[in-house]
Protein 1
Amino acid sequence: MKKIPLDNWVFTQAGGGKGTKKDEYLPATGPTTVHVELLRAKRIPDPFVGLHEHDVQWIGESDWIFKQIFILSEDDAKFSNIDLVFDGLDTFATIALNGEQILETANQFVGHRLNVKSTLKTGENELVLNFGSAFKKGRDIEKEYGKLNLWNGDSSRLHVRKAQYNYGWDWGPILMTVGPWKPVYLELYKNRISDLDIRNDVSKDLNVKMTVEMSFAKNTPGQASLALKAPDGTIVASDRNIRPNKGQTRTTFSFSQGELQLWYPVGYGTQPIYSVEADLFDEDGTLLDSRTQTIGFRRTVVVQEKLLDQPGLSFFFEVNNVPIFAGGSNWIPSDSFLTTMTPDRYRDWLKLLVDGNQNMIRVWGGGIYEADSFYDICDELGILVWQDFMFGCGQYPAYDSFLALVKDEAEYNVKRLRHHPSLSIFAGNNEDYQVAESMHLELDYSDETSDFRKTNFPARYIYERVLPEIVGRLSDIHYHRSSPYSGQGKASTDRTLGDLHQWNVWHGSQEPWTNWDILAGRFVSEFGMEGYPNIRTVDYWLGGETKERFPQSRINNSHNKADGFERRLELYLVENFKHSFEMESYVYATQIMQAECLASAYRLWRRNWAGRGKEYTAGALVWQLNDCWPTTSWSIADYFLRPKPAYFSIARELRLYTVGITRKEVTTFADERSAADFTIDTLFEVWGTNSTLAAKNVTVEVLNHDLHDPTFKDGWTKAVTLSPNSSTEIFKGSVNALPPRTTKSQVPKIIVVSARLLDEDGTVLARYSNWPEPYKFINFPKDVGFSAEISTDGESVKLSSKRPMKGIVLDVEGEDVKWSDQAIDLIPGDDQVIHAVGLKGRGVQVRYVGDGAA
């Protein structure tokens, strides 16, 4: 086996134009796409800056040619088989080798392999890739098959098997990429391992049966060998004399409980990565091909069972018999230009997720089936992966040629991804059933037998016939028809079944975020709130245009793609905060609003994880972790990997141990016939959570603070045992500091109730402070007695105050700092030390609610 990379290209705009003159070719190094190369050649402005996105639209509407000359040596020409392999082409390409057309492509998501032995020649060979405009091709196909309904982007995208976000989304630009976006190479061989299918069946008793099926390109005499290696490299099991039968082998290994280390999600155990090494020999014992595949042994089940005292069914992930609360994020492609994504960038993003105490990521259905390195890193870090198929927010077709593309795509990617222990679920699409519901398409959930292709929701045939068959035949991964999807004949908005996209905060009925508890579902796989990114990111996209440095400027508007975003941002701001429109202050106000909103959701929904039979909410995946360009969006970290304050507020709610408080006013009328005689009681509820598998003895400390009277303080402590892998109710009632009121004109004291969970040695395991809302009604004191003491090594800051403080965000002049926490509530007597990598002793700037910024 020999592999020859083909990555030295030249490219041109077909016929010449804005990118290149006629017959002018620019150099390019693959894998690549046109925008990336034109940026490198300084032929176009940066579309991430200013309004330049609009200046490069012609690229996606043009045809492009990539070509190269490569040399085939006499020795290489002697190989009996020479394959030309394309791991991915974006998207419509006609391929010619030495003047002979050998391939036409129409799907970005698949690879292609062609035996070109007879077309190659010794010496120089010319490979030419002619790429047509996916936008124009899509429009032509749409004319033939009809225009369909969708949310986001141009309707022609529904006919094109290309990353759908390229057409623009409510968080991303229109940047229609084109080119050889994955490696191109020659493979020379006598015979090769064409498929390695490894299945490990972990029983309820945690015994393991591993089955390995190998397929070979040629049915020729020879033998194969297999070796299973432990993480330390030792051989656990092997078979050195496997005889192929009709070009295939099947080998089974069995292990009793405890013989193998099991893979667990982060926080629940370790992530041992085993490897299977497969070798193919000819009949003389000469090694022809070797292939190594990493695996992990785990039993992952999606549990849908009746609950003890609520309607519907649970929906949670169980790994090796351990129920998992999935606290995580949604993932979109992390760049508009995918070829710039390196394994290091993927690692930085996924490490950020884990450092934020998250354990699941959902690969959203409008992007791509991610790079191999993405899933390898998820395996290594213990991140559970929810994988959508690439259909998003649309009324997709199901005509024959489209179905052929879909089947190839599904088989290709299920085979590519199935061995990853992190992969926990395949979902058929993103929100396509919701599109069907909202547009009143033909969707009878009780019909489980029809073909559906003749209805006006024909893609149901894909989601309920094609994809489950392929997933079931080629893998052991759980298949879910859509995200969201309820089942049981219910609409996708049902909160008692399946997974839920809860967009009635921000979208929909635009509920206040204090209603997250009543908006809960069994598994909330999308919810979110917008917030501006780091001010440095704003300044990047402004590109030095100081006259545009205000929230409502044209450039700032262009870098927020959400419909009605100004009205919705201002709705939630004005309902909750007094705020300024000065740029830095406005950025802070939106960030702290996002932080408060999202933390509240995780806090309230984690409370709903209350033990076996009480998995009322089993997951919360925020929309979204990341951005594909510098923008204002729902992300919790911006394009440059700068975490927003919300990232930190979520991380606190996903620690091993947390404490939460709710405050609600209850009005009781003395006479139901009179509205004048009533009592208003303020009731508090306190609970703790424990995600470990052992009960935890803690001391709960609850203190009441009068914001305007620093001498006042009362409270209580209590010894509590937190139940394992569950929430535990601790207190319900009123507090002495807030006696009942008998008139609405009687303004209550501003009492901040703080709670801490203390370990046996006094270590603070968790803290939370509950404030009266909305914050706009609070007259914050001017003098809070705040202190930020920088450590002697200049890499941490000790925060203290004499009055309660809300939403502290730290910053510095110049280069950013890697902070360990942000959006901090500070309580007198509870100093907090914040690590600050890169601070280097610089002075710290501080913003907080009530300082005039928000």
Protein 2
Amino acid sequence: MSFFWVKAKALGVRQYHVASVLCQRAKVAMSHFEPNEYIRYDLLEKNINIVRKRLNRPLTLSEKIVYGHLDDPANQEVERGETYLRLRPDRVAMQDATAQMAMLQFISSGLPKVAVPSTIHCDHLIEAQLGGEKDLRRAKDINQEVYNFLATAGAKYGVGFWRPGSGIIHQIILENYAYPGVLLIGTDSHTPNGGGLGGICIGVGGADAVDVMAGIPWELKCPKVIGVKLTGSLSGWTSPKDVILKVAGILTVKGGTGAIVEYHGPGVDSISCTGMATICNMGAEIGATTSVFPYNHRMKKYLDKTGRADIAHLADEFKDHLVPDPGCHYDQLIEINLSELKPHINGPFTPDLAHPVAEVGTVAEKEGWPLDIRVGLIGSCTNSSYEDMGRSAAVAKQALAHGLKCKSQFTITPGSEQIRATIERDGYAQILRDVGGIVLANACGPCIGQWDRKDIKKGEKNTIVTSYNRNFTGRNDANPETHAFVTSPEIVTALAIAGTLKFNPETDFLTGKDGKKFKLEAPDADELPRAEFDPGQDTYQHPPKDSSGQRVDVSPTSQRLQLLEPFDKWDGKDLEDLQILIKVKGKCTTDHISAAGPWLKFRGHLDNISNNLLIGAINIENGKANSVRNAVTQEFGPVPDTARYYKKHGIRWVVVGDENYGEGSSREHAALEPRHLGGRAIITKSFARIHETNLKKQGLLPLTFADPADYNKIHPVDKLTIQGLKDFAPGKPLKCVIKHPNGTQETILLNHTFNETQIEWFRAGSALNRMKELQHQ
């Protein structure tokens, strides 16, 4: 037995490619790219039956898929919202910005190969500037070092590599890897997109991905299940995007935290498979663990069209396990009549501020938001399907017929090379160009701040409308005065033609070039191409069968990549006299903690990217961003500089935050950076799920006020001592002594959600440190 498998046994690791010989009822490959990796519906069925018998009740679809992937279904304690589940995901997907740190951590683990099918997707590092081909060439040149690292690391460790230009990770997954009943984790918060094809697809940090790639059971707090019953049917200008915009308005950005959102009901059948993916994708904006739809004929149709009829046939055979049981119970139930749903537009500055399109202009006037739309942007991982492009083109075609073009600037982002090639062939791309659009590269682009915007100056108040998923302050263009609204691609197109938020395409008229008024007809387009998809260029790199000679080089002088050093272990003592680096006021997303945009180029270099730590967070002491008091010098300066000063002088520090701290992206850099610069704890009113887990993985203490009002007792000039760590145990609160400058003290309680395994991470200094400890036992 090899040294690897001796170590693997201690970790509870399953052997590599074990799935390939166990499927008994049918052998159907997970994807065309992994012909020897089979879908295990037989194992899913076996595990579901074990758990159903134990619980003695009907199961939701979410429960079937999650519990169907339990490591030990016969003995695992299962209680929604309470217990931690040990799961065996089917596969891992990583986008290039987060894959750098994930692969650096995997290299540090010392393991020779990934234990489950895994892929890397190059979509985050391509900046929108001049247009698709030119921007792609520029990105390949600028990011050559990073792309080479990811390609060689993928080849070395058995990870498939999708080259730049392939498309956005979630569209690639939908087209090639997602399937009904899959449990997939991805290092991007919009991984839930795959729920549109009936899978449980969950966004995680890179350290979680490393666990799964190492073959270690993955831990997830047993999710609650929110049911959304859909009745009626979509029609007219109302689109799948409006479903999630409506749900976001109901649940808000934290209403889905700790829960899977499960759509069901007769209205589901009126939504295309890619439309369901749109809804699941933006479920990340309500804090949901993920979202999912039951298997139906729309998914079967999509599988057939994307060359996976064999998966559809197998899913038909196991369909009872891919839909909820009759009479199953939801922790919360929302009902939406699709026939009554109106087109929505959400924003600005938060994706849960919902308005009917018919009302947003009036609200904007009242609030002082700019009415003129400077740019309309369609595409992104949320809305870049063939159907999305077709509906937008149907709107544009009507404008062109009356001699009109867009009054606003207009950009189009295809979701994948397959979508780009197919909309070029079928004429949609040309229609969108003719109306004034620029087709960008198959990448994330402006949605994540990769946008070299030239039409405004920073600080200039303006409005943009997008079909994206997030609209946090400064997210798209780094301008805090950009009022970004999210809506469907067809509404974006109509508003870009009209040039104003005051336009309602359902009721308002446009004036054609001939001076005659006309009204846009509701768009109609095929959900899938009538001919087969055009795959476009081949952009996939298979990992070689023999990678023994493959080198992965990281230069010690590189400014883009940096090998990781282990974090220090806990010293066995309480955390005394922690300095408060910043007390954050209000919303603090992962964009505030670790900005994207121009900082993406440093995602593989922990020390360099730490120079953006918390630069977007608002300091309650002075109401400013990136300006905090140095407790030693009493001077105000940038947050990262102050943290580095404390680290140099051996001063440990803490961050105090508000509600839903860390909402947004899955980026683990928002946890790695504070740990790297000497942080020890983050104390808030509440956390977003992924960020809380990421903090635990890196050996930090994410703690919450037992009484949220205690947030007001702490002042930026105070020092904090966290007591009770010697007896650190699940469910047992810690004490926090607040030491005020005048010599007075008060004690408050801090709650946590650590389980035994996570406490071991803290004691070891990080989850990766703990993995290495177990390897040497």
Protein 3
Amino acid sequence: MSRFFATGSDSESEESSSADEITPKATGTTFNKNKEAFTTNLILCCPLRFRFEELTNIIKTIRNAMKIRDMSKCLEEFEQLYRAFLKSKTIVDKEGVPQFYIRLLADLEDYLNQLWEDKEGKKKMNKNNAKALSTLRQKIRKYNKDFETEIASYKEVLNSSTNVISLCRCQDEESESDDDEDSEDWGSDSVDSGGESEDNEGAAASLAVVFLKKYKDGRRKRHKKIEQVEEEVDEDGEAEEGGWEKVKGGVPLVKEKPKMFAKGTEINSAVVIKKLTEILQARGKKGTDRAAQIELLHALSGISNENNLGQGILVKIKFNIIASLYDYNTNLAAFMKPEMWKKCLECIDELLDILFENNNIFIGENIAEDSENLAISDQPFRVRGCILTLVERMDEEFTKIMQNTDPHSQEYVDNLKDEGRVCGIIDRLLQYLESKGSTEEVCRIYLRRIMHTYYKFDYKAHRQLLPWVTGPFSEQDQEESEGEDSAIIMDRLCKFIYAKDRTDRIRTCAILCHIYHHALHSRWYQARDLMLMSHLQDNIQHADPPVQILYNRTMVQLGICAFRQGMIKDAHNALLDIQSSGRAKELLGQGLLMRNMQERNAEQEKIEKRRQVPFHMHINLELLECVYLVSAMLLEIPYMAAHEFDARRRMISKQFHHQLRVGERQPLLGPPESMREHVVAASKAMKMGDWRTCHSFIINEKMNSKVWDLFPETQCVREMLVRKIQEESLRTYLFTYSSVYDSISMETLSEMFELELPTVHSIISKMIINEELMASLDQPTQTVVMHRTEPTSLQNMALQLAEKLGGLVENNERVFDLKQGVYGGYFNRGTRTRP
């Protein structure tokens, strides 16, 4: 095997190359006799060195990428390594596979398997890294099958490294007593041997003495290799017998309690403030340990309490502790660790306790640092800082934690329990600012409280309004009823913002949240009137993306509310823009569409992910689509029956027509499975006037579990749907079969569709008034007399054909006249002037 491939480090290859340079000089006779052979060896060394450097450079890049978990870079460099290895195939076949190449393949496979088993780490990867990890793992497993023997032998050597370490230790202990004498003897021998090699040029074997008889250096290298193997084998830094301690940079990794002040220093306000300034000066600098800074600030807070230096200094330190906790993560997209999050909540609670207990503390951003009063002798205390900004940042951190947690795990539920504590902190700050804050600050904290209330359904208030709940409440229910209703809270907070706020954004968000809350609790008319009076739909396109997402959520909730109230046309109009776009998931801030991943770069993707709504605030997309399709069915099917032969009829819902076409193209029609198939099957039944079949497709066990049971008033929604299906099926039946009847009894229609006679009378009267049905009502006999003014099917087809032929003739004449330079065609021929 070539010496270039037999070694894995650049230092050993340089020693080998230095030996090559000395060999021809030391054996001059051999060089003269074998000049051609030596020249051949030099020629062979060039491609070997070139291939060696190319492979080692790529391997170095791969190992660097492994350290930072850059899987995309690992995949890219592995493909380059594969191509570079193929180029050196001829040399590998002659010399053998390099050991460093086998070592990389084994280490890379183990590394990828470790990452693959780390489920939490995989979830934190971005999409590109996760995809690269899967691809690279498959490739390396397939590629390593060609080197199974070499990799197995390498792992055996690695596993036996512990025995090698113990053997080397025994040899070192035996040679310690003679270390000094041997070093002197070996040093003289090396010099003598070097002189002999220069005198005897033909003795090429004497060169080995120069490089072999360095036992002292050899022992150092051996010690270095022992330490390297120990670090790889024993990750905890302790051998089984020795109990060694892992060190970093020559310093033991032992956490010592930081010494704040020198021994004997008198602790007073000036000393503590000076120490606080020193700690804050290191904030943000490169190399600063953020965790150590937080510990120093906590220690300084304890010292301040022990020496009773006053609440002013304590508030100042608490402000900086909370700010340091927020600065712990430099990346804006990263969320706080659980231990840091708990510390943050505790510090904010402690800070609020101090502010409530001491009325002589004034805080604000407008207080300059030079004018601060922190000493216990200077009262009232004046501290620079903004508690509102800290609480707003805490709320944002809570949102990021919920965004980055798996919504289907128990961890998400545990994190969601912290929302009660977050709302409690907001309520406490709200009370504090109502007495000491400005109007702008009160509006800001009111909006934070609104954002935690608007999307929650008030089951307590809803249960009290139910007509069948008339019995006495339990003790728990009585305690809950004593609390303020969410509608009253929202009304009070929002009206204050409407009157006092000077910024459009806070007012806009408050209006949208208020509308959403009204719609969620089925207050349709209040929600509709507030939306129309605000005129937000006129200029919402100029708002920032989070406000647009809130507007989309509000419109969707408004449409669902209209559907529950039986306002089918209003529900369809409210949901039309969201559903017709095909991007409901993205417009509602509930995820990113895969088809748009190519249209955004990595930075834009991170920004859009930060705008996503937490999972517990999501709107059910299947329920939304079902409400839209059912509304479209109740509007579209009667319209299609009334304008069956109208060539110029318009489509009310393109998405609904698309679902109908998809259902018609299916070669085999089986029982419906999905929600869409149920709606399509119900539409076909309604088109024939069969309301019972339509009802069975819309309301059944499968649809109840998927959609209708998700509504708070499930039974009312089902009854409303049955009634709407009966009424629209009656209208569709009359449109479809009016040409067949001369007259039809309203009692018969009432029995067919199971509707009350006044309801049937009302529906038919509206159709006649709107000129949708050409008929008249005979009151004595309670019959509908049809008027033969509608053309028959054959006549409708003939009219359509005549209209199309007329358009075709007109188009042909227009093209012909354009060529002749005269416009008017056949109809203007008599007015043409002859040349």
Protein 4
Amino acid sequence: MRLSLTRPVAAFASLAALIAPAMAESILQSNSLNSCQENSLFSASLFKVVFTPNNKTANVDIVAVSSVQGNVTFDVEVSAYGFPIIKQKVSPCDMGLAGLCPMTAGKIPLNFNLPVTGDALEQVPGIAYNFPDLDATVKVIFTMTDGPEAGNAVACVEADISNGKTVDLLGVKWATAIVAGLALTSSAIMSGLGHYNAASHVAANALSLFGYFQAQAMLGLTGVPLPPVVMSWTQDFQWSMGIIRLEFMQDIFTWYQRATGGTPATIFDSLTTVSVQVEKRSLDFIEAGMSLAKRSVAMMPRSIAEPLGQAMKRDLMRRANIETSSGSYIVYGIQRVAFRAGIESTNVFMTCVAFFCLMVIFVSLAVAAFKGACEMAVKNKMMDSDKFLDFRNGWLTVLKGILFRLTLIGFPSMAIMCLWEFTQNDSAALMVLAVFFLIGMTTTLCWAAFKVIMIARRSIVMHNNPAYILFSDPQALNKWGFLYVQFRASAYYFILPYLGYLGLKAMFIAFAQHSGTVQAVGFLIIEAGALIAASVLRPWMDKSTNSFNIAICAINFVNSIFLMIFTEVFNQPRLVTGVVGVVLWIANASFALVLLLMLIVTTVIVIFRDNPDGRYTYMADDRTSFMKSQTHLTTTTELDALAATARGGKEGFNKGMDLDDDAESITSDSLRRQTERLGVPSAHSNQSFGAHSNNSFGAHSNQSFGAQSNYNNQGYGNRPQSPANPSMPFFPADGPRSPPRYQDNGSMRAPSPFDGSPPYRNQNNSPGPGAFRQQNNASPSPWQRGAGYD
């Protein structure tokens, strides 16, 4: 039976047809011809075949380099997902192809249209034109039929077939980005409105979902050979790593690299004359590339060939895009992702850096604009004056916290790209930028984690509870809360293991691009450790959040097992690899859809619910007792306003610019100076700040320790007043700090109802303000117990 050239290209089968974007015309195409044999005598620098079933023709555009002389036969094998469909022997002489019967050595340019017979069309199932990211391959082995090499295979080429349908869709990228962005934005709005409990839950889930998207993108950045559907699926999430193509930005990056002494890649400029092979089978092509290179220098003198061969080997291991002896390119790993995104391999680092900087600038401007809009709305009576009050008065501190959170979100991308740039050395300026961003972001996050640990330890020393200062001090919560608000208070340290987890994955991706097996083993160990730690420690804030994150860790661990299978270290049949690729896509697509729906439903309910905080149960760390929530602590609002009016100051945050340190925060070194100035007991005192009272003297109360207090006029010095009754001192009146006891010549102290001391009278001989006193042998009063003095 005769078989045309396009019959093997068009004959294959697939598993099932799922949802795929509709196209105006069905096609089958191939854009590269790969060598599948060492010392192959036939290769092609350009290979493009497009088969259109509607007009029953196939357009062939090929520039081949042949070292074969004589008559040959083609052993054609067509397979889909590793399963062989057709095996047949074809003679080019019977097909009447000039230049191939007999074959001659040299460069063979061919550009022609081939008619496709009805028999060939019948062998192509209709599903082949619709299944996304079809994994079909045509393999052709050249066998000599005459001469001394008769019966020997002298060349082998392989072409990957695609139908133009893919799961790498722009709509998926926009949908995932919008959902994650809106969730983070809604959590910020909820926090500004005072619903801190609801805001922390939405933000925790949104950040976990964003981390899952980045984990999917990291799979695509590895040097492991991936099936087509896995490559396309992971490409949907590369936006989370900053790999986004804008034409004018690419021109700027190319100019910048050339201006700083670098040599930009020009793969896309040569696509009309050469082919690019997107590696998906195994990393043996590196050895194949080396064998081709060795043949190129074999005829050189030994003194020249050896240094040249070593230099070529170093370049092959340094660069991820390899130029073969035929002139075509092979891309894998990070540069495979860049090529599929339409970005030159030498521009991918600057692309990530630029989009991270743009994100920081855009968010900063948005926060500043929202601050201005709120002030204008309040000034024009369009919004109540108490709306977003904490944000309006402390927006600079809130902005710093947002920038810290953006640093945490961008850390995986920047760590990978900066470390990878060290292996590429595209230009001196890019190396300097890589050092700056890597050290700067790592130092910033480590410093923030250190601050959180110090704050929590101080809170434990002062109050036997890490949650008190972490959640009662607005400076700490708004600036450092991004590191610990998603965890329970006792797991405040868990940000350090999380940063280590991201750093290890970044190093494996960046430094082991040429060894997919090493990356797969590293990912398997890291993800196994993450799953065990998450399941045993359960560090997140509540049961639902723990379940959400443990599920993500579990699916990441399963993906790492699939990644190990893709390396083919188990020598499994190619059918297994193809099926596992489809399973990975379906499993992760389903899981991502469930997470997205959960986040959307949760966010919508929180936004439109009258009491957003009421949707969530109180957490075991009792953080809601210390947080100023509009739902749980509304009784303090009037007292806060009254205290602020008495001080003649403004409610909320300190208006001063808090840019460098925590000068006004209870978590800073200024705490010691404040306690010395105000006579507050030291950190080792047994007295508590009322950790179990909703009227606690925490940072969410708008009463301050400041010098504007009117205590001096009442004869109490610079001591803070009670949050329950501003006319009373906050601490028990014992020791040398107590007001003077009653004297016959008149005193400012009123009679105490608890200690039976004689009455105090003021200058008008009338009772003065009351004060509490606790004897050493007396039990604490109910008010004292409620305020935490027990």
